[in-house]
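Progress against Task 2.4 (sequence-to-structure conversion) is shown through the following example record, which the project officer requested during the mid-term review.
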Amino acid sequence: MGPTPPSSTSLAAEALLGLLLPFWQIVIGAFVLLAVIASVRKLAQRGLSRMNRALLLTAGAIVALALTGVLLQGA
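Structure tokens generated for the chain above:
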């Protein structure tokens, strides 16, 4: 005996979830963007020296995450 075919209810639920997934990604992305804008604004008010350190720290974190992603992709 082979696997049982999925029911029409489960297919409809998966299709609905498939349609909603991009919407939730946009909502999460918007909240992240708002948080980044708020933090950059606050950082800019504190002055250039802190901003330079924050940019270096952020650049280091981006490089570390990219390297981790590349290394884990091969595993």
